[in-house]
Amino acid sequence: MAATSVEGEAKDFNIGGALGGYFGGGALGGGLQSWKNTPREKALRQVINEAVNYVISVTPPEYMRYGGIANEPVVQETAESTSTGERVVITASSLNVRSGPGSDNPAQFSLPSGSIVDVLARAGDWIQVRDAQGRSGWVAAAYTVAVQ
């Protein structure tokens, strides 16, 4: 276990409003979209990037898995597949969407930070998603947050 503090800097940043997007009753996606190209977005990106970098730096290499969990079946669905009803927002500054679960699969396209996508399936540490344009593929779950 580990703990750290991270900070983002922006003028006129209201931390209560930022935390409301994660813990409040409002939809996270709407809150993030309204921050596009604002100091709040910059500060939130700084906080997320620093937190992710810290987690990566303290995670033992043996905890890293690529391509799913051993002996776990990989569920493949098509772009026409039905959504699970779950939605996630992309937290990385840009995230490659791959043809299959695992970093060894080729990237098909990228999604920018703040993109909200439908979840089609899960396989280990990977999520099959579909974007607003109807494109689907797999992303690492570590770079997403569930939309409430």
Radius of gyration over all CA atoms, rounded: 16 Å
Share in helix: 10-25%
| Order of H and E elements | HHHEEEEEEE
How would you classify the helix and strand content by structural class? alpha+beta
Q: Beta-sheet strand percentage?
A: 15-25%
What's the structural domain tally?
Answer: 2
State the major sheet. Answer: 5 strands, antiparallel
Looking at CATH, the homologous superfamily of the largest domain is SH3 Domains
Which segments are poorly predicted (pLDDT under 50) over 5 or more consecutive residues? 20-28, 68-80
Task: Give a structural overview.
This protein has 148 residues and is of the alpha+beta class. It has two domains: 15-62; 87-146, SH3 Domains (SH3 type barrels, Roll). The relative contact order is 0.18. It has a five-stranded antiparallel sheet with strand order 6-5-4-1-7, with no helix packed on it. A hairpin with a 2-residue loop joins strand 4 and strand 5. 24% of the residues lie in helices and 24% in strands.
